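>> received
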Amino acid sequence: MRKILILGDYKELDLYFLSDDSVKAVFGKNAADTGILSEFEAVIAGGEQFPGQTLDPVKNECARLGIPFFCVSRSDCRMTTEGVRIREFLLSRGILFHPAENLLIGNSFKIRELRKKVGSLSGKDCGVFILGETGTGKEVLAELICRQSKRASRPFIKINCAAIPPGLAESQMFGSEVGAYTDAVSFAGFLEKACGGTLFLDEIPDLPFELQGKFLRVLEEKSFFRVGGKKRIVSDFRLLAASNRPRSELFRGMEFRSDLYYRIAECVLEIPPLRERIEDIPLLCRRFLGADRVGDSAMDKLTAYRWPGNVRELKNVLTRAEINASGRILCADDITF
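>> returned
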């Protein structure tokens, strides 16, 4: 059984992405006996809750055992690098987060309808193609689909196809064997790592065109060879894909194979841009800031804006406002675009 040791006040740490089922032990402000650390997958400590060097023995023993140790403040659990590290670690281990429905924030009609569609997929294993402008939350929606599926406890591999250098795309996707190319080493690719779980390919039209054809064959045959390999590898995974292009422009310039799209798109979901669900902005503000900290004048300014960068831009605007604000409650002057 997966166990997370929390040192400090669990609620005070504001670990909103952990469900109660994920926390297997919680200690007060006295550090735990280091002899029990080997029973846990990771240790998360509230650094501000412990005096001086109290946590050093725990940290040193975790390092000796190879157990991840995270020391955080309350703000670290929301948007900072350490909070992201915790979240990515827990996700990689299949440890539960907050209820999956809380991933997609909003009460607008379009978001409620989107949640219903995702709910209808919970018992299915079909491919899903997600459409939405940059910053709307395509990766969040993919994670929601994964967390409500029968593969929720299995690997969730996320790939940004636009970020993979074209020359490395094939080996990164299929893996490689020694001798495949100069300085090649043996390693498993994304397809192999996703076996039993879910593979999410963001911006799939940016995958090299030739590789799209090879990937289509993988979907048909459920197997492939590593680059330079002779052993056929079978990998059972569910595919989720996404693009920020409008559906009418998906095949512009012959960059994206239509046969690959139709093979993936057993279900197509579209995320509305933030300007079409302005009523969700107050809820998003509460999630990103952790409390009701946006004053009326600031909220009026936020809801009047068109949000070309969507939810991602909103998050950045709020982070900037929080840094520059003179008081706890944000006013219109604190909001800059």
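>> The chain has three domains: 4-92, 100-270, 274-334.
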